[in-house]
TrEMBL record:
This is Uncharacterized protein. PROSITE patterns: ZF_BBOX, ZF_RING_1, ZF_RING_2. PANTHER family: B-BOX DOMAIN CONTAINING, E3 UBIQUITIN_ISG15 LIGASE TRIM25 ISOFORM X1. Residues 147-188 form the B box-type domain. GO terms for molecular function: zinc ion binding. Keywords: Metal-binding, Zinc, Zinc-finger. It comes from Champsocephalus gunnari (Mackerel icefish). SUPFAM superfamilies: B-box zinc-binding domain, RING/U-box. Residues 16-58 form the RING-type domain. Pfam families: zf-B_box, zf-RING_UBOX. The keyword Zinc-finger applies. InterPro entries: E3_ubiq-ligase_TRIM/RNF, Znf-RING_euk, Znf_B-box, Znf_RING, Znf_RING/FYVE/PHD, Znf_RING_CS.
Length: 292
């Protein structure tokens, strides 16, 4: 159901300048400006000013405890919620698209999501959001569908701090209540810088070790190549020596064979000569004996 321009203007007037949502337990400052109790309390904690100032007009006031609840505004908001409950919608999506939480007549696509305010904003409402000095330090990211993943499950507040001791995220209420007392608590920006510095240092160490490893690998590869070359040379030389020795052995065998054959031939001739002489002598003796 779309709303008329008067209803849209009324919703605008009943919205907290910090969170841009309908006032929740509004407190009135001496200057006349109203804020949600949690929003102005959070502003006091973050700014840490003495005395604190109004986020809009910068007028000083005595402190958070001195602020009074605006009962009349509470009644107006309760009546308005009863007649226009559709205004208090949650971020929704159609076909995966995230819509602005503050558009009333026509819901425009969101261009950013504020993690502190837990709202998604179109370009027009984002411009108004960024015009507020109290919002300029908010973490604004690409449109998110599931804001609950970025909020504290206990206090339903967006994460704003990081505990280095426990390596956990914290909301402002966790910080105020002292759940991580005496721990090293950092804002997201400080934690990012610290982690980035640690990551850069780690990357330098890894890069240095990588260079050493690559140098050792290259040297090992070169030594292996030299060793392979020496091994190939030794193998070739050994094969050549063995081939040469085999050739010499073959030649020696052939020469020895020839010498042995010649020696045997001489012995045969000598024995044959002796046999012939004995046979001739035998013949002569036989002839002498027959003449008697």
């Amino acid at each position: 159901m779309s709303l008329s321009k008067p209803e849209e203007q009324l919703a605008y007037e009943l919205s907290c300048p910090i969170c841009l949502q309908l006032f929740s337990d509004p407190l009135v400052l001496p200057c006349g400006h109203n804020y949600c109790r949690s929003c102005i309390g959070k502003s006091v904690v973050i700014k840490d000013q003495t005395p604190p100032r109004c986020p809009e007009c910068r007028e000083e006031y005595q402190g958070f405890e001195s602020l009074q609840r605006n009962f009349k505004l509470c009644s107006i908001i309760e009546g308005y919620r009863a007649t226009a409950p559709q205004l208090d919608w949650q971020p929704d999506t159609v076909g995966g698209e995230v819509f602005c939480d503050h558009c009333i007549d026509e819901r425009l696509a969101a261009v950013k999501t504020c993690l502190q305010c837990e709202v998604s904003l179109c370009s027009r409402h984002l411009q108004r959001h960024n015009e507020k000095e109290a919002f300029r330090a908010h973490a604004v990211v690409e449109p998110l569908k599931e804001l609950g993943m970025k909020a504290c499950a206990t206090h339903r507040r967006p994460f704003e701090y990081f505990c280095s001791n426990d390596m956990t995220l914290m909301c402002s209420t966790c910080f105020i209540e002292g759940h991580h007392y005496d721990h090293d608590i950092l804002t997201f920006s400080a934690a990012e810088q610290e982690m980035r510095a640690a990551l850069e240092s780690r990357c330098k160490v890894v890069s240095f070790r990588l260079k050493i490893t690559e140098s050792v690998l290259q040297k090992t590869a070169e030594e292996q190549g030299a060793s392979e070359a020496i091994g190939d040379k030794l193998v070739n030389k050994a094969v050549a020596i063995m081939d040469s020795m085999a050739t010499l052995v073959d030649r020696y065998r052939e020469r020895l064979h020839v010498l042995l054959e010649e020696e045997r031939s001489l012995h045969r001739q000598s024995w044959q000569y002796g046999i012939n002489a004995l046979e001739e002598q035998q013949q002569q003796l036989v002839e002498v004996q027959s003449k008697r």
